[in-house]
Amino acid sequence: MNKYIQLLVFFIFLIVFIKDVKSQSSSSSSTDPISYNGWNLIFQDEFEGDSLDLSIWNQISQSYDYNDELEDYIPENIVVENGYLNIIAKQQDYQGHNYTSGKITTSGKFNTTFGRLEASIKMPYGQGYWPAFWLMPEDSLNLCWPTGGEIDIMENLGQDDTIYGTYHYSTQCNQNEENGGKTITESYSSEFNLFSVIWDPNQIVWMVNNVPYFNVVPTTELPLPTTNPFYIIFNLAIGGDWGGPVGESTIFPQNMTVDYVRVYKRSQ
Ligand SMILES: *[C@@H]1O[C@H](CO)[C@@H](O)[C@H](O)[C@H]1NC(C)=O
Ligand SMILES: *[C@@H]1O[C@H](CO)[C@@H](O)[C@H](O)[C@H]1NC(C)=O
Ligand SMILES: *[C@@H]1O[C@H](CO)[C@@H](O)[C@H](O)[C@H]1NC(C)=O
């Protein structure tokens, strides 16, 4: 081979190599896949802007009166910067409550029936934190809970590294039937982990870092939703019946940080 061509090939190789290394190191979670064979990306938020994209999200203002929780959700505690969504939990006097936090939903702006839904999340640490990434049916305001179903992709109680995935359903108001699984994710509050479900007509599979740990199949008592569109919710609750009161050593403020959320549908 001509010496000049050899040199040229060498430089092209060098440039491609450097670009590859650069793109890996600049990404905050370079090991996460950005596409899956057999799936089409239909929705994503990488949180690259300097504010929450209100064309796809609703910021909830809500004095929470479910589950004996202690927080008020206020839009001020939702901050998008440096490529992340931060939901900040603060200890502060606010309209008779002692904590503020945040909740966002895609209701009316994005919803899906079936799909692969995933988010890369780092959670706060400490007794009293209750972060969640979950799905509710768009018509849930007209249906009483949980007759339309509820898919909890990820819930955690901040004092330990257990990750919960749960499906709720009932034929009657407030008569909750549920089927849930759990797994351990030791780095839940020190690193980003990928929490997801694959929701198909005949089953829902729960995964952490794309490793399945639980699934539900439809039964007579617990059918799966097949027609309702569901929307996405991120929130960081404080206290409440499930996790119990805030621990004395729990530190405020802390964040539930989301690197990205993506939704895929199976390609036919
Ligand atoms: C929480 O999020 C806010 C807003 O992005 C940021 O300024 C703060 O440093 C974060 N706190 C922690 C502990 O990461
Ligand atoms: C807020 O904290 C104060 C002081 O600990 C307590 O007396 C009060 O009951 C708390 N309020 C609520 C709504 O939990
Ligand atoms: C589902 O979301 C779309 C926007 O993508 C919206 O137009 C529609 O009203 C939503 N469906 C329901 C039942 O709210």
TrEMBL record:
Domain GH16: 27-268
Annotated GO biological process: carbohydrate metabolic process
Domain of life the protein comes from: Eukaryota
Transmembrane segments: none
Keyword list, A-Z: Signal
A Pfam family assignment: Glyco_hydro_16
GO terms of molecular function: hydrolase activity, hydrolyzing O-glycosyl compounds
Signal peptide (UniProt feature, chain positions): 1-23
Family: Belongs to the glycosyl hydrolase 16 family.
The protein's name: GH16 domain-containing protein
